[in-house]
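Workshop exercise sheet. Pairs work together: one partner reads the sequence aloud, the other fills in the structure field after running the prediction. Swap roles for the next sheet.
Pair: D.N. / O.F.
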Amino acid sequence: MNEKETVGLIQKYRHDLMNRLQIVSGYLSMGKADKAKKNLDDVIKFYEEERKLMRLNADAFMIWVLRFQDNYPSFALTYRIDLLESMEKSIDGQKLLSACEALLAVLSDAAEAFHVHELFLHMKEKETHWEIGMNINDVVLEKINMNNVEKQYGISMTNEKEQTSFNWKIAKEERGE
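Structure field:
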């Protein structure tokens, strides 16, 4: 990322934060403390997840997540990261990023034009590996050709109740500084 892209990312990040805080402030000014508290709780929850994202020490993947909406306008990403108490080993950020980019390329080809698809990414740390899951609603399965992605990244695909799930594992690696 060059300086201009970095500044753009910081500006977008600041803009999003200010929007979230202005909503809380607006509810407070209208005397709707219950709605302000709920929104503030949502903001805190969002930034707690982001803190876990940063703890992964997968910088390129973190930037991919932060720039997601700009790069994939047909998708709205939410994520959850479940970490063990002590993170002695980390995830291979490049393997994670490559798998996510390959999967999003396939999903982008299958996505309906002018429709925003909700995408949920769940990363769960286990003792010896990471379990990665990505769920999406409303994707036409006939348009998805997962053969290449499945073989290269070991991603499995299941479909039930109008939701398509993609799951794979990444072995842990020693934490580097």
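Discussion prompt: The radius of gyration is 18 Å. What would you look at next?
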